[in-house]
Amino acid sequence: MAKIFTIANRKGGVGKTTIATNLAVNLSKKGKTLLVDGDEQKSAYKWNEYRQDKLPSIFVLDNLIDTLEPLNNEYDFIVIDVAGRDSQIFREALLISDKIIVPTQPSLIDLEVLEYVSEKVAQAHENNSDIQSIVIINKAPTNYRNSEIGQAQAYIGQFQNLTLLNTIIHDRKAFRDSFVESLSVSEMSDPKANDELQQFLCEIL
Length: 205
Known about the structure:
single chain; 205 residues; alpha/beta; Rossmann fold; globular
């Protein structure tokens, strides 16, 4: 039975697909991993198509549960990347996921969306009581004097059903470059970006 991770947020531009692709590559080193793209833009699927070392990947826009059911025993891990909005795929993913990972930038306009995510997780919990909901601060400013991170941590702490990771992923060029080059930062030479990714993996696994 595969362990299923869904990367989701109602807001676009928070780095969902970058998190999903980096997660999928690194999970593939631990077991057979399927990358599922549930976004009409097909960014994760296209990213994988350009890889030299391709991952098993599918593009799904409806009937997610029925599509994944026969694949569940074929894989150790399944990573689902959904669109940055409410969708049927997102709601289905909540029903079958072991963990939902919610990347958010530390700005107020991004954080305000977490109330919606918290509500949907609470609803899903009625049918999927084992789901774990995780928030990761992503694209954080690298200037240590910036107060946004601390304010974001305090804001996220108000949601009892969302667990905030200690790991903070900063806005590093390596993450943008890795996506353009169809790589994970673990396959590149930026130690700071890779350290943050590895800290993230240690916390969620």
